[in-house]
Amino acid sequence: NAGVTQTPKFRVLKTGQSMTLLCAQDMNHEYMYWYRQDPGMGLRLIHYSVGEGTTAKGEVPDGYNVSRLKKQNFLLGLESAAPSQTSVYFCASRSPGWTEAFFGQGTRLTVV
Amino acid sequence: AQSVTQPDIHITVSEGASLELRCNYSYGATPYLFWYVQSPGQGLQLLLKYFSGDTLVQGIKGFEAEFKRSQSSFNLRKPSVHWSDAAEYFCAVQGNLIFGKGTKLSVKP
Question: Which residues on chain A are in Cβ contact (under 8 Å) with B42?
């Protein structure tokens, strides 16, 4: 049972390049989340999804897009990367109701 | 709007001393609250959670937390800190899963 898997684990991008981060969960969870973590800022919610085909904006959505075409996958896209998007990105998933979330191990992204 | 405040950015305690990490939340309904721990370079691990019922909840690694509705608080405690507890601790409130900025715990030998 893999839980929540993030791909890739590390990536270096040049300013202006695009990329997609993949989050895959095998727990049949409805809800999925993307966060970014920066020193002193905690985890800030970028986008989230409450089910297949749905997405919604979180606290810091600008510069990011997401898609949830399949229930088990939640993709985070950067269309034109900026140095301000250098961060560690975490994905999480959970079931509906008041349940705990399960986190991936993170993706460390550097934009130069 | 929901929010979480962790007033202490960094706390240092001596090994064997007691610990209390503060968390205040803002949420329009009955909150569902969590404490997570993150060791350097690692993901997040759930320490404990409060959904309803008893306001004192027990978690893993000897941690406990007390929910106080009147103070909008959910403080984390441990009676005797071990060196391996050095990590960053995050409080979170659900609705959307919103986190505080974290408290870094250092442990002196």
Answer: 105
B102 touching chain A per CB within 8 A: yes
User: What does the pLDDT look like over B59-102, one tens digit per residue?
Assistant: 999 999 999 999 999 999 999 999 999 999 999 998 788 999 99
Question: Quick check: B94 contacting A, CB < 8 Å?
Answer: yes
Q: Is A10 left (phi over 0), alpha (psi -120 to 50) or beta?
A: beta
The closest CB to that of B101, out of A40, A92, A105, belongs to A40
pLDDT, one tens digit per residue, over A35-46 is 999 988 999 999
pLDDT band at A1 (very low <50, low <70, confident <90, very high): low
- For A40, name the nearest residue in chain B, comparing CA atoms only: B101
pLDDT tens-digit map of B5-53: 999 999 999 999 999 999 999 987 778 999 999 998 888 999 999 988 8
Report yes or no: B63 at the A interface, CB cutoff 8 Å: no
Among the partner residues B43, B49, B101, nearest to A42 by beta-carbon distance: B101
Any idea which residue has 């064997």 for tokens?
Answer: B16
Q: Quote the percentage of chain B above a pLDDT of 70.
A: 100
CA distances from B53 to A87, B32, B56, B80 (A): 38, 11, 9, 26
